[in-house]
Amino acid sequence: TGAGAISIACTKYLADRAREKGIKASFALGGITSVIVDMYDEGLVRVLECSQSFDAVAARAILDRPGVREIDNADYANPFSKGCFLNNLNFGVLAALEVDTDFNVNILTGSSGQMMGGLGGDVACGADISIVALPIIRGRTPSIVKKVFTCCTPGETVACVVTQAGIALNPKQKYYAQLKEDLEETNLKLVSIEELQQLAESLTGTPKPIETTDRVVAIVEYRDGTVVDVIRQIKT
Questions:
Q1: Which of 35, 79, 148, 226 is disulfide-compatible with 11, CB 3.0–4.6 A?
Q2: How is the chain classified by DSSP, letter by letter?
């Protein structure tokens, strides 16, 4: 899980359920936050593999907790290494700026087309089940769209999108049938990604397309170095 508000909340809820069910994780990976350190201190996670620390508690934990281990980015996400921790993940909970009806994820460019922050999405490629959690709208902007402005994470790596209006499962993901069967036994609402997109647009209206020039100002690379998209200069 990441360091955004939704990811931190998910971590807290996960800790509650793990405590309730008596389940312990073998390891947690990635950008470590204080809530994951709390799970380690309680014995809910055996080892933390830390490629970056998102707060002071997580940074301090590397020094004074033997099971919190600092790793470099090659150990974390190198797709050409057999020891890559990322490829041993069962679950990843990710945030996003927008998701489209093909489950492609944009975490790089905002509704204006300008870059908002650093690139991610490696977790989705490595984890068995990657969960993208986001609201269907932010302000007057839909978060579920027909086509993301910038593709950072290809849709085939995303298992499901979770919103306050329901959960959309990706029918092309290999665990689709099992996830659908499990979720149908709960009171959670299953919807299609198209339904979420239509609901979002019904609330905000259809956004005006972002106009760009032909000039490429940035290249979006995947974890193996392949180019998944480019970012073009915004017309002003």
A1: 35
A2: --SSHHHHHHHHHHHHHHHHHT--EEEEEEEE-HHHHHHHHTTSEEEEEEEEESSHHHHHHHHH-TTEEE--HHHHH-TT-TT-GGGG-SEEEE--SEEETT--EE-SB-TTS-B-S----HHHHHSSEEEEE--SEETTEESEESS-SS-SB-GGG--EEEETTEEEE-TTSTTHHHHHHHHTTSSPPEE-HHHHHHHHHHHH-PPPPPPEEEEEEEEEE-TTS-EEEEEEEEP-
pLDDT tens-place string over residues 27-81: 999 889 999 999 999 999 999 999 888 899 999 999 999 999 999 888 888 888 8
Give the pair of three-digit tokens for residue 78.
Answer: 């190198």
Tokens linked to 122? 């490696």
pLDDT of residue 78: 87
Burial class (CB in 10 A: 0-12, 13-18, 19+), 141: middle
80: number of Cβ within 10 Å: 9
Q: Of 121, 132, 123, which is closest to residue 95 (Cα–Cα)? A: 132
Rounded Cα distance, 148 and 151, in Å: 6
Q: What are 21's two structure tokens?
A: 């069910």
Residue 91 token pair: 């679950």
